[in-house]
Amino acid sequence: MNKSKKFINYLDEHASKNDMNYLDYNGLMYVIENQYYNNIGILNPNKKKIIQNTYNTINNDKKLDNDKKLDNDKKLDNEDKYVKKNKVNIDKSIYTLTDLIDVINTNEYCHDTEYNIDLESLHKVKKELVALNDMIGMETIKQSVLEQMLFFIQKLDIDINGNSDYKHTVIYGPPGTGKTEIAKLIGNMYSKLGLLNKNVFKKVTRSDLIAGYLGQTAIKTNKIIDECIGGVLFIDEAYSLASNDNGDSFSKECLDTLCEKLSDHKNDLMVIIAGYEDELKNTFFKVNKGLESRFIWKFNMDKYDAKELQQIFNKKVLESGWKLDCDNGILNKWFEINYKDFVNYGRDMEQLLTYIKISHGKRIYGKDTDLRKKIIMDDIKNAFKIFKNNREKNDLPKHLQNFYI
User: Fold this and answer.
1) What mean pLDDT is predicted for residues 285-291?
2) N or C: where does the chain have the smaller number of CB atoms within 10 Å of the terminal CB?
3) Beta strand 201-204 with 86-88: parallel, antiparallel or unpaired?
4) In this prediction, what percent of the chain has a pLDDT beyond 70?
């Protein structure tokens, strides 16, 4: 009997523990094995009954404790629901990204305050909104992104069955207008807003999706799309996935697979395609007629004027750690005269700056080191000659092909 009392006391000590670790469990088994088994390894009947009764008592006590804890938790939850919150009504008409950013800047989010708009989510995407608003030009697409975001952030896309409208988007425009950067900003925003559950952004081209054998393209395309579920798949120059020849079975296999996936993953995938409008309509959307109805959002990139192109150039010079050492009025006039030659906009500005650095290096060789990385009009004019001479070849001159900046 003394052994039974000791054992019950031993169990009582374990009953107070929420979790038994390995050492606790091992010690308990040792006591049972050495004190409550007979010589042939069978638990004595009277001891077995004592252990069972004690075990039931411990379980009942723990159940009462757990039930009490659950009741207290429910009580606290109910009390939280009736905590009086401050209510703030933000009455602001939103016409531009600047308007929306002003709302964020003038209204700090407080957890104990109830707002008539989702202010918490807006604060989460402030960085992306500011970055988009600060991009040079592109007023049309800024407006389009604003309208799309306000639609989704208010959950106006959700039907009574909990299904969402398509998020898939087309960005029409030539190369060098910032389509990739726009797509990345959209992906980051929608991830932070919870519209997409993963911060995944994958940029692909034809070679990533189309294989050299029939049957392999579908496998390759499915694999890429599956990697992007919950995030954004960005297909640049999407017209290259198709061809004017309707007999291109590889293209059709890819686009048929893509079309099916667009429907299967309305709620958890955003596909953004980019390219020239005419080429996309005559190739991509022509091969599979179902694609166009799945890309309900269509954004247009504005062409840059001379002033905006110069701003892009100035920004790239500054970001590269170089300086412009020329009259601003003369530079303005130069861009007004020549900007139409830069049909690829930002991409052409990068190429022009590369040629400027090369021309500059030749001009200052052997001269005062204070002249280094200070661009003058002669550098720009000489670089422009190289640019024009090599525009059609879209390459550096042969004598510069192995030259690295």
Assistant:
1) 92
2) N
3) unpaired
4) 75
For the chain, the domain total comes to 3
Residue-wise pLDDT for 27-60, tens only, equals: 666 666 666 555 555 555 565 566 566 556 656 6
Phi, psi for residue 323 in degrees, rounded to 5:
-130, 150
Task: Indicate which CATH number applies to the domain containing 156.
Answer: 3.40.50.300
Kindly state whether residues 277 and 203 are assigned to the same domain.
Answer: yes
The whole-angstrom separation of Cα 41 and Cα 39 is: 6
Tokens, residue 271: 């596909």
pLDDT the model gives residue 164: 87
* H helix count then E strand count, the chain: 18, 9
Measured CA to CA, the distance from residue 260 to residue 221 in angstroms comes to 11
**Same domain? 272 vs 188:** yes
What's the rounded Cα separation, in Å, for the pair 200 and 187? 8
**Contact assessment for residue 13 and residue 58, using Cβ atoms and an 8 Å cutoff:** no
Instruction: Give pLDDT, residue 167.
Output: 96
- Cα–Cα distance for residue pair 279/129, rounded to 1 Å: 30
Q: pLDDT tens across 342-367, in order? A: 999 999 999 999 999 999 999 999 99
Residues 6+ apart with CB under 8 A from 85: 112, 113, 114
What is d(CA 332, CA 367) in angstroms, rounded to the nearest whole number? 28
Distance CA 379, CA 325 (A): 10
Element (H, E) at 29: helix 22-35
CB count in 10 Å sphere of residue 73: 10
For all residues of the chain together, what is the average pLDDT?
A: 85
What contacts 87, CB < 8 A, 6 or more positions away?
A: 113, 114, 115
Which one-letter amino acid corresponds to residue 222? N
The terminus-to-terminus CA distance of the chain in angstroms comes to: 91
Q: Is residue 228 part of a domain?
A: yes
